[in-house]
Amino acid sequence: MAPSINNAKCVLVTGATSGIGRALALAIAALPSHPTVIGVGRRKDRLRELKEAGIEAEEFDVNTDRASMKGFVDEMIKKYPEIDMILLAAGIQREVHFKKEVNLDSIATELNINYMSVVAMITFFMPHFLSKAAAGQPCIIAPVTSGLAYIPAPWVVNYSASKAAVHSLCIALRALSKISPPLVESELHDVEGTTDALSKFWVPIDAYTKEAIEGLQRGDDVVSSGFAKVAYEKFEKPKDGMVSEMAKRSATHSKK
Ligand SMILES: NC(=O)c1ccc[n+]([C@@H]2O[C@H](COP(=O)([O-])OP(=O)(O)OC[C@H]3O[C@@H](n4cnc5c(N)ncnc54)[C@H](OP(=O)(O)O)[C@@H]3O)[C@@H](O)[C@H]2O)c1
């Protein structure tokens, strides 16, 4: 049976100080099973609010190098040895216009936050999860991607590519559950000043959270809704069988 969030004992959520990460962290903490929830972010005032809501709060900037990421993960495992799920929602979105000026530093930062930090967290949590799984405790790794991983948006090309990279990583690793939201109410677009325009189309955070939690409770491989679900079913789902086939072939190949 697919691992369900209903069996999770301790869930670490990055990006927990606003938007989707915050809503999911609060919803997970309110599950009947009452798992411990650890909310991670940079903004101290928001972390304080999480603490007041009964969530453990840890300050950490995921835009960092490998050594400090490893230090953070080791510290979390030591402090919360029960961690059996990570939900990786920290992310940023920047507009890039290739026909105008391109800021490569900004592109590298977006890639580091949206992709490299996810790869590094998975890498450093993996030995802990493997030993838990060997002892019979199923673990869940749930990176948040986006419908734009399936259909890239021309105004946020690097963001779309970063989410496509996370998506590709997930389907290749297969053991993972991942979350791909449509346009959802959050603070993601505040930096670019497009929040007002997008608020006319986005899915309200409460409606989205309910659907996402239900998917995590069922143990869906891909927790998707709205436009992201349509795009996933049309363009990505057919890949699943092919990836399994390739995995079988590579297992045969590596035995040789
Ligand atoms: N909203 C949507 O329409 C939508 C659609 C598809 C996918 N998504 C994805 O959903 C996830 C959450 O986004 P959101 O829409 O909820 O946006 P949001 O409200 O802006 O939340 C982003 C979160 O990421 C954290 N974060 C950003 N940079 C960080 C850093 N360097 N270190 C640590 N934490 C950092 C922020 O915390 P601090 O600022 O406190 O550090 C905040 O908690 C993202 O991965 C986003 O790409 C969103």
UniProtKB/TrEMBL annotation:
Belongs to the short-chain dehydrogenases/reductases (SDR) family. InterPro entries: NAD(P)-bd_dom_sf (IPR036291), Sc_DH/Rdtase_CS (IPR020904), SDR_fam (IPR002347). It comes from the Eukaryota. PANTHER family: NADPH-DEPENDENT 1-ACYLDIHYDROXYACETONE PHOSPHATE REDUCTASE, PROTEIN DLTE. Pfam families: adh_short. One of its GO terms (cellular component) is lipid droplet. The lineage of its organism: Eukaryota, Fungi, Dikarya, Basidiomycota, Agaricomycotina. One of its GO terms (molecular function) is triacylglycerol lipase activity. Keywords: NADP, Oxidoreductase. GO terms for biological process: phosphatidic acid biosynthetic process; triglyceride catabolic process. This is NAD(P)-binding protein.
